[in-house]
Every structure is written in C-alpha cells, then in structure tokens.
Amino acid sequence: MEIHSDFQQKPKIMTNPKSNSSAYWKKNLQTLIFLLAIWFVVSFGFGILLVEPLNNIKVGGYPLGFWFAQQGSIYTFIVVIFIYVVRMNKLDREFDVNED
Amino acid sequence: MDILTWTYLLVGLSFALYIGIAIWTRAGSTKEFYVAGGGVSPLANGMATAADWMSAASFISMAGLISFAGYDGSVYLMGWTGGYVLLALLLAPYLRKFGKFTVPDFVGDRYYSNKARVVAVICALFISFTYVAGQMRGVGIVFSRYLEVPIEWGVVIGMCIVFFYAVLGGMKGITYTQVAQYCVLIFAYMVPAIFISMQLTGNPVPQLGLGGSLEDGVPLLEKLDGVLADLGFTEYTSGRKGMGDMLMITLALMVGTAGLPHVIVRFFTVPKVKDARLSAGYALVFIAILYTTAPAVAAFGIYNAINSTSEKELAALPAWVETWQKTNLIQIDDKNGDGKVQYLPDPKANELTIDKDIMVLASPEIAELPNWVVGLVAAGAMAAALSTAAGLLLVISTSVSRDLFKTFKPDISEKKELRIARFSAAGAVILAGYFGVNPPGFVAEVVAFAFGLAAASFFPVIILGIFSTRINKEGAITGMIVGLVFTIAYISYFKFIAPDLNNASHWWFGISPEGIGSVGMLLNFASCYFVSKITPPPPAHVQDLIQEIRIPRGAGAAQDH
Predict the structure, then answer these.
(1) Please, what is the average pLDDT of chain B?
(2) What is the Cα–Cα distance from B73 to B118, expressed in whole angstroms?
(3) Residues of B with CB below 8 A from A63's CB?
(4) At B533, phi and psi to the nearest 5?
(5) CA-CA distance, B213 to B64, in Å (whole number)?
(6) Half-sphere exposure of residue B67, counting CA atoms within 13 Å on the CB side?
(7) A40 inside 8 A of chain B by CB
(8) For B331, phi and psi rounded to 5 degrees?
(9) Residues B164-218: pLDDT tens digits?
(10) Longest CA pairwise span in chain B (Å)
(11) Distance between CA atoms of residues B397 and B261, nearest Å
C-alpha cells in the first residue's frame, strides 16, 4: 500500500505546473463570482426585484428602475465582459498559461 | 422613384453582395465548412455572431412587443443580452480550447459516450428545427410584405438565397456574408430610429431620446404613462407580470441564449481562446446597438400611434394609417359610430387594433422619410432573417454529417464528409422551406420552445462538464433527458393540449411556459449531480481533458479527430 502511494506521488518538476494551474483556476473562479455578482445585481436586482423603489428616483426622463431594465443592465453586461477579457489576459500571463 | 422600385433595387443589391461574398469565400475543406477554418478575427466574428443572433423577430417584432408590453418587455432585452455574459465567462473560452467543431462533439468527448453524443445531437436538431421554421416563415412574410408576392413565393426565394451561400460556402461563406448582413441591418434599423427620436425629443440618439422630453417639456415616458393611464391601460413603465415570472422568464432566456448551438458554435471559429472571450464582448456591443435602440423605437412608436389616432376624426387620420390599413396591420372599426377612433383596453369598445410589427415597418412613413428608407428597412429585415436561417441550417447539417454520420462511420474521407455536409444542408433548407410554406401553426410559440429547450438541455451539462471533474456520463445523459422531457411536457401541455388553461392561476408557482426552461435547467442540474454521485467518476483521460480545457495555452487551430 505505502509503496503504491509513494509511487503515485509525482516528481517535483511535475507538481509545479500542476499547482500553478490550480492557482490559476482558483483566481479564475474568484473573477467569475465577482463578475457574475455584478451581472445578477444589475439585471435581476435593479431591473426586477428592486425596480419599484428605484423607479422613485428619476434620472433625466427615466425612472431609474426602468432604465436599468431596458438600458443600464445591457451597458453593464458589456462592461462586465470587457473587464473579464482584460483581467483574464493579465492572469494568463501572470500564471504563464497564455497562448503567445 | 416609388417605394416598390426602391425596395426591389436595395434588396436586389444586398442579395448580389451576399452571393458575391459566398462565391469569393467558397469552402474547400470540412474545417472551412464547419468553423470557417478557425481563422476569423474576433471583430468580424463578433459582427457575424450579432447578425446570426438577431433574427427577423428581433428586427421586426421586438420593438412592437415592447410597445404593448412596456416594462414587461424588459425580459427580452435583458434575457437576450445577459446570456452573452454567461457565454463569455462560462462557455466560450473553454469550448474554444476544447477545439472541436460542435456542441455534441464536446458532450460526446467530455462524457466519453456516444450515447451522450446522440442525445446531444437530438437536442441540437430539435432546438435548431423549431427555431428555423419560424425564420423561414419570417423570410416569407418579409418578402410578401415588401415585394408584393405571395408568402409561398417569398419562402422559395429566401430558400434559394440561403441554399446558395450556406451549401456552397459553409461556415466560411456564412460568416463573411453575416458581416455584410450586420452592416445592412443595423444601418436600416438606426436611420428611422434616429429621425423619429429627433422629431419627438430633439435628441438624435434614440437611447437618450427615450429619457428625453417632448416639445412641451414633459418627459416622454411620463407623458406616455399618463396617456395610457387615462385610457385605462397599465402605465408604460410598470409591469403586469408577477415578479417571480419576470425572474424566471429572464433567466430562461439568458440561459437559453447561452445554450443555443448556433450561437455557441460561433466561438469555435476564432483562432485563440483569448479571441473567443474578446469576440463575445464585440458580439454583445453589436447586439446592444440594436437592443438599446429597440425600447426607444417601442416607446416612440406607441406614443405616435396613440397620439395620431386616439379621439381623432376618421377623416383626419395621417396617411400612414391608411396605407397600413390596406395590409390589415392596422384595423379601425368605428363601433360607436361617433366618427372618431377610440383606443381602449376593453375589446368590446376598442376601435383600433395595431399589429406589433407596425412599430418598425411603418417607422419610415411615420417619420416622413424618403422612399429609399422604406426599401432600406426591407433589405435590413431580409438580412436579419437570412443570416439567422443560414446559421441554423449550418448547425443542422453539421449535426447530421459530423455528429451522426462520422460517429458511426469514422473512416469516411474528408471529401465525402464535405459532400454529406452539403447534402444535409440542402435537405435542411428544403425541410425548413416546407415548414415555412406550411407553418405548423405555432410559429409564435417556437421561440419559447427553442429557448426553454436550450436552457433545460445543453447549458447545465456543458457548465458542469467544464467546472466539475466529478460529473460522469450517467449524470449528463439523465440530466439532459430529464430537463428536455420536463420542459417539452410543460410547454406542450399549456400551448397545445390545454391552451385554455394557459393562465397564471393554472401555472405551477405562477411560472409561465416562457419561463419554465429555468425550472427544467434546475432539474437538469439536480438530477445530473445526484446520478453522478451514486455512479463511478469519469476515467482518468477525461479528468485530464478537463484540466486541459481550463487553461488557454496549447489551443491549436480547430482540430479534426
């Protein structure tokens, strides 16, 4: 049994890229959770759940809740994707998993 | 020149352009046919994705849908854009790294099972066919309305055009045609929107005009709320749908968007993982231009329509009302005989019926724009319908030639596979055309169907396939079947078997058939998880595959087996 488990342990040189990629994956998941939270809040939060209280605030001719539901959430979605692009490009280089 | 001449001219020119591009980009290999050789730049791919995505329904009907739904229409706006966030963050980069051609490819390899692959192919075919039938009908309607030919002829002409560039060019031809189609459709959508926004609010940007003020200084939305409330309708900026239903429909549309095979496959065409992320961002920018303009067109349209008809003398109605009465898209019936038009919520007293498509179709006339703009809108609507139909047909033909044929006969030559792909594309065009001429009578319902099915079948197993190493083939197959069967059963029950029960008091937990895909998705997730728990984990080579797709390095060009 012991010999077997020793045998399964990989040499150090192999574990390095492995831990590297799991650290990368962890950072990736953190980024995703943060960005998906924004995605959720602007659409389901401001656009639907909180739409009535927000509609009491007027921005120009827009009730704010209505603005989030028909305009603001869409603009935020675009920003979320581009933050993701920039952040992931940086992470790719940092953890040396980039393509070029 | 009159409207019809302009329409023939502009539509003809745009068709010549598409066919020219198709000949120039003829596909020579299966790789070019399926994923355009994997060499499309992220910007061009973003534009093509946007054209692929925005159908005749987005172009012609969405604004009108929002006109009458007001705030409730937000489910479409958020649902059909928010899905791209899920696509960019959770699917596109990993599927690009995976590096094959189709969604069933991924399901089959990740779940190491041809059974899973076949279930995925069936899901893909089902979703694509329900969706494409509606598109061909849309093509026919656009043709018949603008070119004054019967709908059947419209479908046949549309089929010939799509046939030409989908069969000949494959994904390569389709992609570059879609880039051109995007330019045509967005220009056609924006020109009338900008002019109407200027006329009503003095602001040339429709997105700002919607929040702008009318000539008398009252904000447009406030005025519209007031006008509708006076007539007895719900205020424009408040909703009638229950909050739970709003949440469920929005979720189903978002997740459905991210699970549609013809959208996912677009991200296989870019060279790198990096490009797949960026391309999803560009796609959403191009989509958002139309999707943030649509609510403005919606509000301008309903305001203009009420303002120029309600309580007006029958003899003094504007010219566009008369023009569109001929097509039955506007119907006026002076029931109380007072010589004026009353627009009221009570169907017995209401004298004005407006088809939702009017808001976009009649917009050039409402804004008193020159005749060539009408021709332009026709070309735009055609571009929207054709680009979506072509994208779907490609998914169907790929599913048949690659996922079915090649799985069971892996040794066929590339040349033969390409020929089978072309034949199945041709077959799909003819079948879709048949449905376009003889619509199954539920064209309006197919959208709910396609999105619900995509949400309930693909999305969970792809997500779990990437983010969990424990989910196995037993779980995935069970999940897809449970999600699909539940969603089909619920929608069919309320749409076809017992349509008279289709109201909030009979729905489960107040969830409409449009939103039930969300529940199907949750059931899929749950059953997939539990079945995987009690069955053995995936083998080592699959674990390695998952680790491999999680990091970008090493993504070569899209590979054949």
Answers:
(1) 85
(2) 36
(3) 221, 237
(4) -60, -40
(5) 21
(6) 22
(7) no
(8) -125, 130
(9) 777 777 777 788 888 999 999 999 999 999 999 999 999 999 999 999 888 888 8
(10) 80
(11) 12
Separation between Cα atoms, residue B470 and residue B201, nearest integer Å: 57
Q: Would you tell me which residues 281-320 of chain B have a C-beta closer than 8 angstroms to some C-beta of chain A?
A: 281, 284-285, 288, 291-292, 295
pLDDT tens by residue, B328-369 = 778 888 888 888 888 888 888 888 888 888 888 888 888 788
pLDDT score, position A19: 63
Place B444 in a pLDDT band, splitting at 50, 70 and 90: low
CA–CA min distance B219, chain A (Å): 5
pLDDT tens, residue by residue, B80-115: 999 999 999 999 999 988 877 788 889 999 999 888
- Tokens 């909180």 correspond to A50
Helix (H, G, I), strand (E, B) or coil at B332: strand
Asked if the model's pLDDT at residue B522 lies above 90, the reply is yes
Phi, then psi, of B204 in degrees rounded to 5: -75, -15
Report which residue type is found at B293: T
DSSP three-state, residue B409: coil
Q: A42 to each of A10, B77, B237, how far by Cα in Å? A: 46, 13, 17
Q: Tell me the domains of chain B and their CATH numbers.
A: 3-222+257-294+375-550 (1.20.1730.10)
Closest among B78, B498, B482 to B257, alpha carbons compared? B78
Of B120, B103, B93, the residue nearest B476 (C-alpha): B120
- B468 touches A at CB < 8 Å: no
| Residue B113, helix vs strand vs coil | coil
Cα A48 to chain centroid distance, Å, stands at 22
**Any idea which residue has 């590339």 for tokens?**
B414
- Our CA-based measurement puts residue A13 at a distance from the nearest CA of chain B, in whole angstroms, of 18
Instruction: Calculate the alpha carbon distances from B325 to B67, B267, B459 in Å.
Output: 19, 44, 44
Report how far apart, in Å, the C-alpha atoms of B178 and of each of A99, B300, B440 are. 28, 29, 28
Instruction: Give phi and psi for B308, each to the nearest 5.
Output: -95, 0
The DSSP secondary structure of B216-249, one letter per residue, reads TS-BHHHHHHHHHHHHTPPPTTS--S-HHHHHHH
Type of residue numbered B65 = L
Q: Give the closest residue to B498 by CA, choosing from B487, B490, B508.
A: B490
Residues of A in contact with B302 (CB under 8 A): none
Residue B216 main-chain phi, psi, to 5 deg: -85, 10
Residues of chain A contacting B291 with CB distance shorter than 8 Å? 74
Question: Does residue B244 have a pLDDT over 70?
Answer: yes
